[in-house]
Amino acid sequence: MHSEANLLPLIVEPEHLNEFLIENPNCPDLLIIDVPMKADSYAQGHVPNALFLDHSRLLRGEGDIPNDVPNIDALSALFSSLGLTRDTHVIAYDDEGGGWAGRLLWTLELIGHQRYSYLNGGIHAWRASELPLSTQPHTPTPSNYQADIINPTVNIERAELQDRLYEADLAIWDARSQEEFNGHKGNNKHLGHIPGAVNMNWTDVMDKDNHLRIRGYAELISELEAMGLTPDMEVATHCQSHHRSGFTWLVGRALGFNKIRGYAGSWNEWGNRDDTPIEK
Questions:
Q1: Is 90 exceeded by the pLDDT of residue 10?
Q2: Contact between 115 and 6 (Cβ < 8 Å)
Q3: Other CB atoms closer than 10 Å to residue 54's CB: what's the count?
Q4: Are 17 and 119 in contact (CB under 8 A)?
Q5: Residue in 239, 250, 255, 264 annotated catalytic
Q6: Rounded to an integer, what distance in angstroms lies between the CA atom of residue 222 and that of residue 135?
Q7: Which of 26, 108, 154, 212 is the most exposed place for a label (fewest CB within 10 A)?
Q8: What pLDDT, in 10s, does the model give residues 115-165?
């Protein structure tokens, strides 16, 4: 089935999305999801018809690695409650420059749902462009979505990462702050970074002078290449909980890093074990 929504690019600008909504006011295959860091951001004004998603539902929430991927039943319940269908095109955004929106889109990629876009700059860019805002909660029409892990390689497990640490064609992008990377800050049993990892803080990928939109692609690719990350490589990206690295994964995809993977366990797993090698 052809849907106009499927023509939307991976990274969609606020003005482009607004024009699309004006031209397609009741597009049945479009699902706009606001997944803010601060819950009150949604109440203060969201993109018209956007659904609110509590970001904690993107995490397992229990066990040794509470930031890991939820189980199949939880994912099925989550996406059914949002009204996702196989034909739906999802537009995700948040209030912090792309972390939780990226984690949502990464989760969709994991379950094989590839019809999605990110609203560049999120609600900050939308508001700055003075586009229409709604304060009315939008209620989804539930669906019966049976999730399955269709693309397991989108996630890299700790064991694989540990086995392949020194492979030349696998690079590790640590999206945490420099203080965390250097082992000067953190709440884990062990501090530091994965051997061989390179550090570009997720906030350094955002243009703070342009309402948290993604910075210029050519400049970003040059900086990443200078650090040893090139689009042809397999790249594993992580942070503390694969929230900040939800954004770096998304940006990698936008820059043409087609083999970029997220490490859902992130430092919360790596830094709390005694058998994982660590550099400072």
A1: yes
A2: yes
A3: 12
A4: yes
A5: 239
A6: 41
A7: 26
A8: 999 999 999 999 999 999 999 999 999 999 999 999 999 999 999 999 999
Average pLDDT over residues 95-123: 98
Confidence of residue 1 (pLDDT cuts 50, 70, 90): very low
Task: Give yes or no: residues 11 and 130 share one domain.
Answer: yes
Task: Give how far Cα 214 sits from Cα of 33, 74, 131, Å.
Answer: 19, 31, 19
Annotation says 27 is catalytic: no
* Residues 168-208: tens digit of each pLDDT: 999 999 999 999 999 999 999 999 999 999 999 999 999 99
Boundaries of domain holding 192: 155-270
Asked which of 103, 128, 151 is the last residue of a domain, the reply is 151
Single out the residue of 98, 131, 107, 92 nearest to residue 14, CA to CA: 131
Q: How far apart are CA 103 and CA 98, in angstroms?
A: 8
Overall pTM surpassing 0.85 (yes/no): yes
Q: Which residues contact 220 (CB under 8 A, 6 or more apart)?
A: 205, 214, 251, 255
pLDDT tens, residue by residue, 40-65: 999 999 999 999 999 999 999 999 99
Kindly state the tokens that stand for 67.
């930031």
276: in domain? no
92 shares its domain with 118 = yes
Same domain, 11 and 145: yes
Helices marked H in the chain: 14-23, 40-44, 72-82, 99-110, 122-128, 158-163, 178-181, 217-226, 244-254, 266-270
